[in-house]
Amino acid sequence: MKRLKKMAGTFLLLVTAMFLTNSNAFAQETLKKGDKAPLFTLKNQDGHDFKLADYVGKQNVIVFFYPKDESAVCTAEACAFRDAYEKFKDANAVVVGINQGTIESHKAFQTKEHLQFDLLSDPGNKVLNMFGVKEEDLGKMKLSGRETFVIGKDGVIAYSFRDFMNGVDHSKMVLSYLKNK
Q1: Which pTM value belongs to this model?
Q2: CA distances (Å), origin 91, targets 34, 56, 128, 178, 180
Q3: Nearest Cα to 91, choosing from 36, 49, 150?
Q4: Residue 25 has pLDDT above 60, yes or no
Q5: How far apart (Å, rounded) are the C-alpha atoms in residues 151 and 91?
Q6: Chain-centre distance of CA 152, in angstroms?
Q7: pLDDT at 155
Q8: What is the average pLDDT across 158-165?
Q9: What's the CA dihedral at 112, 116, 117, 122 to 10 degrees?
Q10: CA distance 170 to 163
């Protein structure tokens, strides 16, 4: 009995340590349709706060998580959202891109690609983790995931789409969802 208590105590200490060190053992499931979107505040490419709470009750919010400014697939994805921007506005939706890049990197990317929407800096992928977006394991390299969420005016996830290699499809799939809802 004494040994069993000692083992239980050791187990409890291990679990607590894993939790306190933010281990992936407690990774959140990816948010899905019907889940409440976590409220967040992040800095945009101009250093201004973007607060999701400012849009709840007013507009749909399209949040696309992408791994890196200036990479080929990410650029194609961002430009697809840019090219469909007016259609998103017509659907009363605001578009934001999020990754852990710096404010300066986002500003350069936004300027170079003529992006009309905010790019938000998420140091340490805190918001990405709140949404439960999974990393992509590419063999010797891991990248943050690519996933898009539509947050309804009610603050609830209305739609999500995940496809790591086909960035352009994110904009197409969200537009298709918005047209058919």
Answers
A1: 0.83
A2: 20, 15, 25, 7, 11
A3: 150
A4: no
A5: 13
A6: 15
A7: 97
A8: 94
A9: 10
A10: 8
- Which residues have CB under 8 Å from 80's CB, separation 6+? 167, 168, 170, 171, 172
Burial of 135 (0-12, 13-18, 19+ CB in 10 A): middle
Taking residue 134's Cβ as centre, other Cβ atoms within 10 Å add up to 18
- Asked if residue 133 lies in contact with residue 144, where contact means CB atoms within 8 angstroms, the answer is yes
Report the candidate in 75, 159, 73 with the shortest Cα–Cα distance to residue 109: 75
Over residues 134-154, mean pLDDT: 86
Specify the residue for token string 């200490």: 13
- CA triple 143-175-133, angle to 5 deg: 25
Kindly indicate the confidence band of residue 145, based on its pLDDT and cuts at 50, 70 and 90. Answer: confident
79 tagged catalytic: no
Among candidate residues 52, 62, 74, 80, the one labeled active-site is 74
pLDDT of residue 135: 80
Residue from 113, 111, 133 nearest 122 by CA: 133
pLDDT band at 16 (very low <50, low <70, confident <90, very high): very low
State the pLDDT at residue 5: 53
Which two three-digit tokens encode residue 109? 């990317």
Residue 75 corresponds to which amino acid? T
Q: Give me the amino acid identity at 175.
A: L
